[in-house]
Amino acid sequence: MKEFIGYKRGVNLGGWLSQCCHEIAHYDSFIGKEDIDKIASWGLDHVRLPIDYNLVEDKEGNVLEKGYEYIDNAIKWCGEAGLNLVLDLHKTAGYSFDKGEQENGFFENEQLRERFYRLWERLAERYGKYSDRVAFELLNEVTDQSCSDVWNEAIYACTKRIRAIAPDTTIVVGGYWQNSPDALPDIIKPYDDKVVLSFHCYDPLNFTHQGAEWVEGMDPSFRKSFDENEINSEYFAGRFTRAIETAEKYDAALYCGEYGVIDRAAPQDALEWYKAINGAFAKFGIAHSAWNYKQKDFGLSDEWISSVIGELVKYL
What we know:
36% helix, 316 residues, alpha/beta
């Protein structure tokens, strides 16, 4: 299994250019150069930058040039801080992992998939020149297994079109069930040796999402301590088995693009969870990026985790 060199330890910038109110005032205030410098001070080597299509396109698909300036800034600041960047398309016209966004039709409508390809061509034209420090992640968290065949076709078609423009850029792809490690065996064979396979991990969900009102059936008052679960590095190694086997089959690198603990958990319990999952990442050489740097209920720069963050960053 290959290593995702330059992207071993990172953190997401969720909530800045994705899963947000798409207004200039928000973009200008949520993340700045000082945040990128802080991430670098944690000893990390990259950020994962989620973006929504709304940042750079209007509803009709017309280009919003102003939106690209924020991606430009992120790449510039990361370069100055010695960080690499994964550019993650978190929402495309017609699809979002969050059903509340009411983006529908991507997997049924070829025109929406064509719009997705064109968006990636524009991103490749603009950022392919940074292939030494910017990777492209095609789409965040496909949900339904029934979409697998269409998603595989879209992965191939999109990668082929990006390659015509950005032949050297690393491309990151994941499977269904919200990038479950168990879905990776069904993903299409990597287009070339610059494709990285991705999964996400928030296991066990009743610990990492305790009290989350958006989780179906979850009591907002529910709390669970780390010691109430049999969680250790071996637990996570078992969860990653199918992803590891798939990466080894294709001699591809493996990337956990999201993992983390909700801010309802006790800080010391969160620290112990990060230690456990990091043990599995280290054992198998899996690159990873924690969710999330700021806010979004998982913020590692927020007050809830401040008492342990000095030690926790060692396990990011």
